[in-house]
């Protein structure tokens, strides 16, 4: 399968501190790839390098065929991004947010109108499209933010802790939206510290102290450590056990 992300010994240091240490992995087109680890493990720093928001210190990586060192602006035009904090404007309405971000993504006025109307219809948001987003519940905000991040049909969408703070039902609904996009051929790269969400991913890498200690499918990793769930796998990896599957 086509590789949409490739990373080889990608590293980021801040002075004497190494936040991300020589991580090597790849992500295939249409794959849901989980980037897991505890808070402070280096997940967000790695994602910021891959999205062109932060320059790496060393190593190599490409996203959608573009180099993270020299083609950061081209990367930004070919990806979607949703931060762990709500990434839309609370003081704008739903339609105003769609219009604003559609313009940033380079969509025409006609495309913005058509895709905006489809988004509102698909999520059944007609009754709140004129409300300010600060009046909308968090769970709905996150689903709206994901839909807006994929409005321009990017090759890859990066989701940074997208389900943090939302209820279990909304988390499940959010993952249904992720599967829908993956079925359409979009690659989804998602960071999370919820170990149960690893089960929803095709493959995962597990970060411990800035390094990848586990890499493969959830089934492969559970089998290797004779674990019943991903929490048990993470305990093994946090102890220093390592297992990498190509």
From TrEMBL:
Keywords: ATP-binding, Nucleotide-binding. It holds the Pfam family ABC_tran. It comes from the Bacteria. This is ABC transporter domain-containing protein. GO terms for molecular function: ATP binding; ATP hydrolysis activity. Residues 5-234 form the ABC transporter domain.
């Amino acid at each position: 399968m086509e590789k949409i992300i490739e990373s080889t010994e990608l590293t980021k240091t801040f002075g004497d501190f190494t936040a991300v240490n020589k991580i090597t992995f790849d992500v295939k087109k249409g794959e849901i790839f989980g980037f897991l680890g505890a808070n402070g493990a280096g997940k967000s720093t790695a994602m910021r390098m891959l999205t062109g928001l932060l320059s790496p210190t060393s190593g190599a990586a490409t996203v959608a065929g573009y180099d993270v060192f020299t083609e950061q602006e081209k990367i930004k035009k070919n990806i979607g991004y949703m931060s762990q904090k709500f990434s839309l404007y609370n003081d704008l309405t739903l339609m105003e947010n769609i219009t604003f971000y559609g313009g940033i993504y380079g969509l025409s006025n006609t495309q913005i109108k058509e895709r905006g109307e489809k988004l509102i219809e698909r999520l059944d948001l007609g009754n709140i499209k004129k409300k300010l987003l600060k009046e909308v519940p968090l769970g709905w905000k996150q689903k709206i933010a994901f839909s807006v991040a994929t409005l321009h049909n990017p090759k890859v969408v990066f989701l940074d802790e997208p389900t943090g703070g939302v209820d279990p039902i909304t988390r499940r609904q959010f993952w249904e939206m992720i599967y829908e996009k993956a079925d359409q051929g979009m690659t989804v790269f998602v960071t999370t510290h919820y170990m149960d969400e690893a089960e929803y991913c095709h493959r995962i890498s597990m970060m411990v102290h800035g390094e990848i200690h586990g890499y493969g499918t959830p089934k492969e990793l559970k089998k290797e450590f004779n674990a019943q769930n991903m929490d048990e796998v993470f305990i093994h990896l946090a102890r220093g056990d390592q297992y990498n599957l190509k």
